[in-house]
Write a structure and sequence with these properties.
The structure is a single chain. The protein is mainly alpha-helical and 151 residues long. The chain is built from 6 helices and no strands. Helix 3 packs parallel to helix 5. It is elongated, with a radius of gyration of 19 Å. It starts with a helix and ends in a 26-residue tail after the last helix.
């Protein structure tokens, strides 16, 4: 556990990091969507290429993109955007082609890649971030005084 904290940092250290500027986050969201789509495309082929190790490699890259997006932007949306790109490409890959071919055929490694990749994306998107909102709206965590007759 200590080795993991050295690499990733403690929760309090991650929460103390400042958010990147809004323009950077927007550009990062666009780039993360494209990277998530590219990882999905590559993972669809790699997971079947080297049966036990290919799916592990594809899932490692998938989880790395989701967690990297979370840490890069400091928002939950940073993990959700690459998940959306990953999922959109997989939906196209699972559709049957006119020739009758599938990119993701029914098999253990394909199902494992789909299920474990989706779980990794949801887990990364629910990890604690520096902002309570997914978009990184500043100041949303501050307490506002109550105005009224009972205040």
């Amino acid at each position: 556990m200590k080795a993991l904290q050295v690499v990733l940092g403690t929760r309090s250290e991650r929460m103390a990091e400042p958010l990147p500027p809004r323009g950077f986050r927007v550009a990062a969201y666009v780039a993360l969507f494209l990277v998530g789509a590219a990882v999905s495309l590559c993972g669809a082929f790699v997971q079947a290429l080297w049966p036990p190790f290919g799916v592990l490699l594809a899932l490692g890259a998938t989880g790395g993109v989701f967690y990297g997006g979370l840490r890069l932007t400091g928002t939950k949306l940073g993990a959700g955007i690459p998940l959306a790109g990953w999922f959109a490409v997989l939906m196209v890959m699972m559709a049957p082609r006119p020739e009758g071919d599938f990119v993701l055929a029914a098999g253990l490694t394909s199902y494992l890649y789909l299920f474990a990749g989706a779980v990794a994306g949801v887990v990364c998107a629910t990890l604690p971030t520096r902002t309570p909102l997914g978009s990184g709206a500043a100041g949303a965590d501050r307490q506002r005084p109550v105005k009224g007759p009972y205040a």
